[in-house]
Fold this protein.
Amino acid sequence: MQTWLRRYGRRRRLVAAATAAVAVLSAYLATRPADGPTVLVAARDLSPGPLDPDDFSPVPFDRPPSGAVRTTRAGQVLATPMRKGEPLTDVRLLHSFRLPPGMVAAPVRIADAAAVELITPGSTIGVLASWQEGLPARQIASELTVLSIPESTRESGDDHGALIVLATTLTQAAELAAAQSGGRLSITINPGGGT
């Protein structure tokens, strides 16, 4: 009788230990970090507009959504709002800022390509023109929204300046075209304009 009780007691202890081990393993598997690729997730609620690197945190996902973004670069624009913790996907990004109603898109070549590195789509800028070295530049337009900065412009950065596309009125577009035909254009940056 005692032998049977001892065997039964040992079996109960073995079953209890095995059950506890399974419970510990299950808890570990349920709480361990995902092993999948790292994607960008909104660090806070975001509104549409130019992106800032601090807007997102890298998080590993077992099964990331289709088109999940792993890195961002300067000049990218969020097309729609995002909630904190939501993964960023390619369809949420614009490659240019939307053209406001009643405006036209005016391509303008800025003489200093390095200055263009300071702005992104959505930035608000002014444009200055100088026709003769040594004379002061004159403001041609102000409060213009940058629509797009072509990727080839960012990569080349040569002596020919950098091309940007601005939202302007027809009158402003004509003035900018006349100014760049015989002068060198530069920019001023409005600090409250999305840079």
